[in-house]
Backbone:
């Protein structure tokens, strides 16, 4: 799919589920470092946007977002979750009060990619305390928060039903060395 086809698919899917009154948290990388396209692209999207900056949201891009009235931040605690662009290290989740922090909602990790010209498929699921909202994994469509929470809870319960309770979850989180490579 070309960049133009991808953009149009995102715009169409976005506007099917987002109304003009909705508030949408975008977890990074609205555009791929091209600040000239930002006003044209965003003017086609319904809703109000809050951006958690990503690795492709350059200073110049963030300046344009702010001029358009978009709030830009590094991370956000929202209803018991830490929302970030890049998944946070499991140690950071352990440092929070486990009763208050439900998990990490993040983007950044794609279905596939290229390193030095070689295709690879990265790990996109880091366990029950992480929820990847990269649009590639969700039919290029934003996810309603209530739907995300319900799916997050189903995944966590399925994980725990396999006998991995809190101790198993903590052990798995520590073992996720893949995240260390991302951080």
Residues:
């Amino acid at each position: 799919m070309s960049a133009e086809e991808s953009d149009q698919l995102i715009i169409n899917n976005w506007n099917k589920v987002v109304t003009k009154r909705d508030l949408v948290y975008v977890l990074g990388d609205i555009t791929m470092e091209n600040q000239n396209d930002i006003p044209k692209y965003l003017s086609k999207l319904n809703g109000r946007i809050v951006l958690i900056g990503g690795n492709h949201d350059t200073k110049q891009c963030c300046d344009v977002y702010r001029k358009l009235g978009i709030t830009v931040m590094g991370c956000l605690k929202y209803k018991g979750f830490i929302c970030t662009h890049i998944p946070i290290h499991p140690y950071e989740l352990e440092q929070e009060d486990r009763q208050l922090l439900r998990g990490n909602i993040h983007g950044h990790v794609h279905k596939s990619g290229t390193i030095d010209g070689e295709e690879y498929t990265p790990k996109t699921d880091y366990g029950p305390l992480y929820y990847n909202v990269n649009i590639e994994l969700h039919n290029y469509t934003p996810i309603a928060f209530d739907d995300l929470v319900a799916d997050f809870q189903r995944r966590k319960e399925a994980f725990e039903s396999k006998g991995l309770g809190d101790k198993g979850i903590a052990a798995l989180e520590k073992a996720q060395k893949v995240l260390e490579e991302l951080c």
